[in-house]
Amino acid sequence: MPLELNEHTASLIDVVTVDEVESLVAWLRTTSKPKVNLRRCNHMHTGALQALLLFQPRISSTPTDAFLATQVLPLLRGSSGVSSAESEPP
Amino acid sequence: MNPLLAQFLAEAADLLTSVDEGLLQLERDPGDPELVNEVFRAAHTFKGSSGLFDFPELTRLTHAAEDLLDAVRSGRLALDSGMTDDLLAAFDLIRGWLAYVTTHEQLPATAGPAAQSLITKLRGPLGGEQAAPDDSASAVAPTAVSDSAPGWLSAFETEWLESTASWLVTTSATIRFARYTPDEGCFFRAEDPLHLVRQVPALAGLGLIQPFEWPPPETYDEYQCLIGFVLATRAAVGELNHLFRYVPDQVEIVELDGAAIRRHLSGEEPPPRPAQAAAEAVVQSQAQNLELARDAYAILAAAQRSLTADSPSGARLSSVAHSVAAAAAALGAPAETVEPDVEALTARVATLLAETPAAPEEPPPAAPPPPVERATADRGRADDPGGQVGTRILKVDQEKVDHLMELVGELNVAKNGLTFLADAAEEEFGSRVLGRRIKDQYSGLHRIAEELQAAVMDVRMLPLSVAFSRFPRLIRDLSRRLDKTVELVTEGDDTMADKDVIEALGDPLVHLVRNSLDHGIETSAERVAAGKAPAARITLTAVADGDAVIVEIADDGRGIDPDKVKRKAYEKGLISEDELEALTETDAVDLIFRPGFSTADQVSDLSGRGVGMDAVRASVEKLGGTVTMRSQPGRGTSTRLRLPLSMAVTQVMVVSVAGQRFGIPVDLVVETVRVPAAEIGRVLHQDVVVLRGEVVPVIDLARVLDMPWTPDPAADQRVLIVSLHGQRVGLLVEQFHREVDVILKPMEGLLAYAGEFSGTALLGDGLVLLVLNMKEVLSLAARTQ
Question: Mainly resides where (chain B) (predicted)?
Fold first, then answer.
């Protein structure tokens, strides 16, 4: 199961596909102070990334996957990013 | 092979068949909106699933076909036979490609040009607009080194841009930036933008384009893609174009040099850092020291491994940080105040690694099976509520059923062993009670085994429509080429037969139908002159007949002229002058099954391919069936194939010679007789026996098989009468045994040459039974006479 949802912590495991996005979002909606463990995550679907960006859960454990750790994690931590108003050409 | 690809290929076969069928029906009944929809849906599904794999030509071709069908569906275009031809040609091409993909897992090299001409044709009726690009590489507009940086560059961290710019200026190099804004519905097309980004080689930086305003969590639609990405990479523009070839309209690629980035930086957030010139000089001298760079790279790689493998802390972390800082300095990257934070360090190491010019290793290859693919099946379910209704059908690999059948056979053999055990209990151990109990047990087991066998056989049964399904297409194509009007009628499509029989039936049927079309059926003009309806009719009929199935191919063509056949056979030296006179009409028609016979005056490219009717007869007989042909000149020809329902179980009669047991297929056995030795006469070196006024030649099976046995002249001789091609032959044997059902295994390996045996079977007592191939045995007998 690529998604383990507990009371406060969700673990994303291996490859999280678009199928898991719905349950992840439902969990994020209903959980107060959610925490997400990405240690064993190898890839997450864009939909999952988007959900994490929107709900801003605490990342309790960083991914070991190189791409997620080096490229995606900084995005989640908000160290980068612009709003589309700036980036869209006029 | 990727299991997903295997599944795609399996489904593709079904889809192609339904597209073919639908198109043909559509041509006949162009107004039917339901049919158009069906074909469109099949083409659409095809396009959708082909997009999962790296087959851009396939996707583009199916896309063109889909567009044409869409226009037909919406009533903007009327389907004519030219379009049907193009559509059929497109799906034929695809079929050929998929056959290639099955073995090579990639499209043939010729796919691009072949697809292009068809795409142009398919787009023709649509006004030829949106002609597809020549090849995928140019699908994305080529980019040159740009002077001005686009605004979205600010999605990257300024600090990172600065360091990159200075490095690029120093090395006079360029870097590629891309902005990827997936459209909102992309998740529904099984796209995963992040996965695509992940595949970008030598990714140097990644930034995020967030929506201007996030929707409130309550109304957030998780299936709507709201974000986009900006990325920087060392990969070439061509690589990026290739990677994003399915979404060229959503990607903007620019190639920038250091100066352009600096202009961007100074334009929006001045001023640039001081002391840059000094740093540059150092960078240059050091970076050119390749050895140093390589060492630094190794250190960074090791640091990354240690950081990702076991997030270090405390002293270890600071030591890792220290070595990273040293390596960074060696590479000329600006020094950074290093706080011992695992994430920051990891990110920094990755950035440094990506920037390192003397990278001795390739970046990690793209992750193997893209998770996007797994998502598709369910996507299809989600946005297509009309899919998969009806009974639940399990698709099982044929091999598994075959294996099950083998196991049933072995169970039968093991079960039969119990009767021998019961006999042994009685005779060797003198316990009749035990013997009887074993027999009781046996009868229970026997019933279950029989039912199991029947059930497995039932699983293997397929309707004849499987074998018939290809004929509508075949007849359409051939009749158009031959300029004949032919109507196909099939009857009894739902008659069932074993899958092996159905499969083996394919080629003979195709051959017979081709023969009918080519030789039997006249052109419309000839038919009208002969007083017949201009449209000819070919009828395929299947009926069950006990444990056999009869398939008949009938046409109402010109029939076979027996005199012409006889003359031809005589000219070819197949029959003697006496036979020319004596042969009846039925026998004359039968002559066309002789090897080396062909009545067509002109060998056409349809049926005259060097395989004659003898090949048809041979392959049907191999299945244990028979072929007969009836013909009425001027009225038509019908060919009747009689095939066993199943080839899995063969009933054989067991006889023994010189103590060795042999099996003979029961179908061939006419009777068993005992004749006094004195009644066996001799005519022209051939033993014969007279039975009910008919002289039947008798063959000594022991002599033919070269076994040491001489019949006892005092006792009655046991003769097994078999019938082959309507001729009766007696086999002199030592003893008759019972009939058994066996599972015949073909002769393989070292014994494959032994043509006189058609196979082996295991008997209940563990003995191996050799089953005779009577045709070969008789010809062997003729040679040993």
Answer: membrane
**Which strands form B669-676's sheet, in the order they lie side by side?**
B669-676, B716-724, B727-733, B694-700, B686-691, B681-683
ipTM above 0.95 for this complex: no
In angstroms, the first-to-last Cα distance of chain B is: 56
A12: closest CA of chain B, how far (Å): 14
A75 interfacial to chain B (CB closer than 8 Å): yes
Backbone angles phi, psi at B676, to 5 degrees: -60, 145
SS3 call for B578: helix
Residues of A within 8 A of B190 (CB-CB) are: 18
CA–CA distance from B504 to each of B455, B490, B497 (Å)?
Answer: 22, 19, 11
**CB-based contact A33:A18 (threshold 8 Å):** no
| DSSP secondary structure of B140-183 | SPP--EESS--GGGGGS-HHHHHHHHHHHHHHT-EEEEEEE---
d(CA A61, nearest CA chain B) in Å: 10
Read off the tokens for B733.
Answer: 């044997």
Strand partners, B553: B540, B639
Mean residue pLDDT of chain B comes to 77
User: Do B36 and B75 form a contact (C-beta atoms < 8 A)?
Assistant: no
CATH: 3.90.1570, 3.40.50, 3.40.1000, 3.30.750. Which one for A3-76? 3.30.750
What is the average per-residue pLDDT within B100-125? 81
- Cβ–Cβ gap B351/A18 under 8 Å: no
Assess B302–A contact: CB distance below 8 Å, yes or no: no
How does DSSP classify residue B740?
E
* CB atoms B212 and A21 under 8 Å: no
- Taking an 8 Å cut-off on Cβ atoms, the answer to whether B217 and A54 are in contact is yes
Q: Is B600 left (phi over 0), alpha (psi -120 to 50) or beta?
A: beta
Q: Could A87 and B230 be called an inter-chain contact, meaning their C-beta atoms sit closer than 8 Å? A: yes
Measure the CA–CA gap between B147 and B263, rounded to whole angstroms. 9
DSSP characters over B45-68? HHHHHHTTTT-HHHHHHHHHHHHH
Asked if pLDDT for residue B737 goes beyond 80, the answer is: yes
Residue closest to B107 by CA, chosen among B96, B91, B122, B116: B96
Residue B368's SS3 state is: coil
Gap between the Cα atoms of B314 and B7, Å rounded = 51
Average pLDDT over residues B329-335: 56
DSSP B476: H
DSSP code per residue over B452-471: HHHHHHHHHEEETHHHHTTH
Residues B123, B126, B130, B131, CA torsion sign:
positive
Q: How large is the average pLDDT for residues B363-374?
A: 42
Query: B220 CA to chain A: closest CA distance, Å?
Result: 9
| Cβ atoms of residues A5 and B329 within 8 Å | no
Per the omega criterion (within 30 degrees of 0), is the bond before B3 cis?
no
State residue B295's pLDDT score.
Answer: 59
Interface test with A, best of B148, B186, B210, B310 (most A CBs within 10 A): B210
Residues in a beta bridge with B555: B538, B637
| Beta carbons of A84 and B210 less than 8 Å apart | yes
Tokens of B136: 């995928």
Q: How far is A56 from chain B (nearest CA, A)?
A: 11
> Could you tell me if A47 lies within 8 Å of chain B, comparing CB atoms?
yes
Contacts of A38 in chain B (CB under 8 A): none
Give, rounded to a whole angstrom, the gap between the first and last alpha carbons of chain A: 44
> Which residues of chain B does A44 touch, with a Cβ-Cβ cutoff of 8 Å?
194
The sign of the dihedral angle between the CA atoms of B665, B671, B676, B681 is: negative
| Range 10-39 of A in CB contact (< 8 A) with B | 15-19, 21-22, 24-25, 28-29
